[in-house]
């Protein structure tokens, strides 16, 4: 008896521009995704509750309820579905707003559909449950930092850290390689599965957020910048 094919990953696409919505939905379908496409944030929330997609693609600027608010509502409900934001706003404050809302990644308009595909593949890989042959490692410790990969929880001393999916993955990567300097390309490959290039500020934005959550105001920092190379986690 032949094995049945794995179900197609489901994508909820919310984009108010009809031409972009139709073109991207068609491209995603041809790429093998099962797509639900809607035109605004109200429809996006309803569809997210109804269909429980594997990944969401949200335009930032939509009428009534924008993509950032959709993201905030879902995260407040405890929904950890990966979210990719589409935005024409490419400044650092705009990227920070998306990360603050709980988004996992973003693509700036105008975009290449191959880039969208690459980032979706990376988000789905990170969200996939581990197989029995690849169970997560036991707890990781670095000084007073403790990470439980199985539960996806982390603590600094007695304080539990509230981390987004990407922040947790980044902290885990740095902690597993404590004392080793990881260059930008390695981190991009391991966390996003895609190298954004030397001009990207994406990694710096995430490191800044992670530092503010991990480090105590008057305590020693854990994450250090190695100028021109990358980052290293050191517990002393």
Question: Could you please describe the fold and organization of this structure?
Answer:
The chain has 236 residues and is an alpha/beta fold. 39% of the residues lie in helices and 20% in strands. It has eight helices and twelve strands. It has helices at residues 18-30, 41-51, 67-76, 92-101, 113-127, 165-176, 184-191, 202-214; strands at 10-14, 34-38, 55-59, 83-87, 105-108, 140-142, 145-148, 153-156, 159-160, 182-183, 223-226, 230-233. The strands form three sheets. Strands 2-1-3-4-5 form a five-stranded parallel sheet, with helices on both faces. The chain has a four-stranded antiparallel sheet with strand order 6-7-8-9, with helices on one face. Strand 8 (153-156) and strand 9 (159-160) form a beta hairpin. Helix 2 (41-51) packs parallel to helix 3 (67-76) and helix 6 (165-176) crosses helix 8. The protein is globular, with a radius of gyration of 18 Å. The termini are far apart. The model has no long low-confidence stretch (mean pLDDT 85).
Mean pLDDT across all amino acids: 85
The biggest beta sheet reads: 5 strands, parallel
Q: Quick one: how many beta strands? A: 12
Specify the overall morphology.
Answer: globular
**CA gyration radius, whole angstroms:** 18 Å
Q: Which series of helices and strands comes N to C?
A: EHEHEHEHEHEEEEHEHHEE
First and last CA, distance: 58 Å
Strand percent estimate:
15-25%
Strand-pairing-aware structural class: alpha/beta
pLDDT < 50 runs, ≥5 residues: none
Kindly state the percentage of residues in helix. Answer: 25-40%
Q: What's the tally of helices?
A: 8
- In the sheet with the most strands, the strands line up as 2-1-3-4-5
